Amino acid sequence: MPADYHVKHNIKIEGSRSTQGYTELHDLNNFLIRDTNVNRPHSIEAHPIEQLGKKCPFVDKNKSLPFHKLLNPWVIKTPPGYSCLFLPPMNNSDDRFSIIPGIVDTDNFDHEINFPIIINGDKYPVLETIIELGTPIAQVIPFKRDNWKMVIEAEPLIKKEKRRFNQVLKIFNVYKNRWGSKKSWK
User: Fold this and answer.
1) From the CB of residue 7, how many other CB atoms can be counted at a distance below 10 Å?
2) 81-95: b or e for each residue (b if 16 or more CB lie within 10 Å)?
3) Which among 19, 97, 128, 143 has most CB atoms closer than 10 A?
4) CB neighbours of 135 closer than 8 A, spacing ≥ 6?
5) Can you give the C-alpha Rg of the chain in angstroms?
6) Hey, which CATH number is domain 5-144, 2.30.30, 3.30.1490, 1.10.1240, 2.70.40?
7) 53-81 residue pLDDT tens
8) Within 10 Å of residue 80's Cβ, how many Cβ atoms?
9) d(Cα 83, Cα 23) in Å, to the nearest integer?
């Protein structure tokens, strides 16, 4: 996260709204974010559900509320022929929110890449929290684009059974093959 974000999700926001020291205040369909980053005029935008489609599982997880995009202040540039896969961080214990995964041709796209976020409404139907500056929001995996054709075919049953039999033999003979020693009795 490029700043501290005070998030209120699926909480009815009423009355006057004071910025209380924050530089931004967004109230978009029961989603309030206060951004403490004084150097950026905008930090979040609405992301309509129609862009994903009502059957998308993220819509239910987000409690059918509009999605919001974190406006990333960084540009990611790769060499020609490379794209980036953007995912929620692997092995991340922060389950309050995640980004929607996607691929961007970062060799041609010379702009900031914004991250549509999902609040984990399955676990947090109502959420008021602070997502702190430096919280991991995305994992970026660059890869070379290449044209190729994938072939999926069934393995012949005889070959499959022989492979399984060999695996079982390896399991049963592991002690003998790794640690056992030949003994002789006289």
Assistant:
1) 20
2) eebbebbbeeeeeee
3) 97
4) 1, 94
5) 25
6) 2.70.40
7) 778 887 777 777 767 788 788 899 999 99
8) 8
9) 34
